[in-house]
From TrEMBL:
Signal peptide: none annotated. Pfam families: DUF1508. Transmembrane segments: none annotated. This is DUF1508 domain-containing protein. Residues 60-105 form the DUF1508 domain. It comes from the Bacteria.
Length: 121
């Protein structure tokens, strides 16, 4: 099942990523100062995905990517793809699975594993 993963950037702002069922990041959002803004935009994306505008681009190095625009606001940018077919598969996966995707919040940065120094005593 595909998921939305909320996490923090290095500048302490929040972001979400839409991750495919195979664990590949399909798209990444812009930065949000507050976590609830990030959560609200995920819900907006789920509700308005059918009416979203998808703009396709090609980089100067020949890679392909897309931007997702909802209500004249750029919500997220995809990862770079080597071919148009792979980019289209990413778009199809997003359109098929995003509305039912669960949201995982990893923004608290509570690490499950202890620091290495704790084992050096």
């Amino acid at each position: 099942m595909a998921t939305f993963v909320i996490s923090k950037r290095l500048d302490e702002n929040y972001k979400f990523e839409f991750v495919s069922r195979k664990g590949k990041t399909i798209l990444t959002s812009d930065s949000y100062e507050l976590r609830f803004e990030c959560e609200e935009d995920i819900e907006k994306l789920k509700i308005a995905l059918d009416s979203a505008t998808i703009m396709r681009f090609k980089t100067s190095s020949g890679k392909f990517y897309f931007r997702l625009i909802i209500d004249k606001k750029e919500m997220a940018t995809s990862r770079k793809y080597t071919t148009q077919l792979l980019m289209q598969r990413g778009i199809d996966e997003m359109m098929r699975a995003a509305t039912a995707a669960e949201v995982l919040d990893f923004a608290s940065n509570d690490f499950v594993f202890p620091e290495i120094e704790a084992f050096q005593d």
